[in-house]
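Customer ticket, subject: "Can you confirm the structure for DUF2383 domain-containing protein?"

Message body: Hello, I'm evaluating your service for our small team and ran a test protein. I'd like someone to confirm that this is what the system normally returns, since I don't have a reference to compare against.
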Amino acid sequence: MDNKTVIKTLNKLLQGQYMGIHSYGEFIHNLDDASPLRDKFISIQKDLKHHADLLSHTIQELHGKPVTSEGAIGKMELFVSQIIDRSHDDKEILKHAIKGENLYGIKMTEELVHDKLDAESLHLVHEILEKQREHVDILKAELHE
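Agent reply: Thanks for trying us out. I re-ran your input and got the following:
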């Protein structure tokens, strides 16, 4: 596998992690201080930061330069979602978080990495995806309480 392709793919995944970190920051900001979701969202955001660190480290090990933000497209998507999806209701925030995890966190990652990573990088991405699936399960359980 070509290192440039692996680095480029990992950087796109890293941008996605930054987008998730910022999205959860917005969710946390929009939750009432007394919301039982607050601690769960902070924990998920912490996981996303950890994933970003792991991806950055892997990119550096491959002699690449990790991106440091979600990029212009990610910033635009985040901006638009803040305008359109502005909800302060816990159930609505949960639904947006689940949609983001499923669509951007899992589905797009699976499509992005297809045949573009070496075995070690692919293993890392599978670990990240497994954690994101756990996030979805946690969020869905909260939605149905």
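A couple of notes from the result: Residues 3-143 form a domain with the Ferritin fold (CATH 1.20.1260.10). Residues 3-30 form the longest helix (28 residues). Feel free to reply with more questions.
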